[in-house]
Amino acid sequence: MSEHHHFIIYKPYGFLSQFITNQIKGGKHKLLGELYDFPEKTMAVGRLDVKSEGLLLLTTDGKVSDFITTRGGVEKEYYVQLDGAITTEAIKQLQSGVEIGFDGKKYMTKPCKVKIIDDPNLPERSKKIRDARHGPTPWISVILTEGKFRQVRKMTSAVGFPTLRLVRIRVGDILLGNMQVGEVREVEELL
């Protein structure tokens, strides 16, 4: 039995992917510790921004976290709802890489897998999203092996189709599956 603890959670919209806050401007954000009584030294493996939802891995093992986020080339899959009917040309641009801003510099994203998908029938988000009466809101799947700050959102904006909703559904072989929003599961291992 490992001395480390590992968790998979369905991070709700509006939560920060952390346990403490440095007084973020604009009021109080919800933190992961509100979902479960996690052991000391638990850390998020990568992040999902406050507006993003879905699969988030947590661990007390820094080596596992480092492998997944920086060394392992681990795939992360997102379901992304877009503002506007995305074109074949825009999909091709996303697949081959687009220029986004990162850390005050221009960054060219690595090639990735992108395809249009049917509505994934996810749980309703706590904050309403504009509906199709205001124009098409299709879904795409985006599979990356990197993860810069707000990368998927920046990528879809760069090709003219801003992200309305972003849900991570897979990290490596770990799937969000039928988890409910806010659910926490302790697991034996993450790799």
Automatic annotation (TrEMBL):
Q: Tell me the domain of life.
A: Bacteria
Pfam families, alphabetized? PseudoU_synth_2 (PF00849)
Question: EC no.?
Answer: 5.4.99.-
Q: Name one GO molecular function term.
A: RNA binding
The answer on whether this UniProt entry bears the keyword Cell division reads: no
For the keyword Isomerase, the answer is: yes
Q: What class of enzyme is it?
A: isomerase
Q: Which InterPro entries does this chain map to? A: PsdUridine_s_RsuA/RluB/E/F_cat, PsdUridine_synth_cat_dom_sf, PsdUridine_synth_RsuA/RluA, PsdUridine_synth_RsuA/RluB/E/F, PsdUridine_synth_RsuA/RluB_CS, RsuA_PseudoU_synthase, TruA/RsuA/RluB/E/F_N
Query: In Gene Ontology terms, what is a biological process of this protein?
Result: pseudouridine synthesis
Keywords carried by this UniProt record = Isomerase
Q: Which residues form the Pseudouridine synthase RsuA/RluA-like domain?
A: 5-158
Q: Which PANTHER family match?
A: PSEUDOURIDINE SYNTHASE FAMILY PROTEIN-RELATED, RNA-BINDING S4 DOMAIN-CONTAINING PROTEIN
Q: Which family does it belong to?
A: Belongs to the pseudouridine synthase RsuA family.
> Which protein, by its recorded name, is this?
Pseudouridine synthase
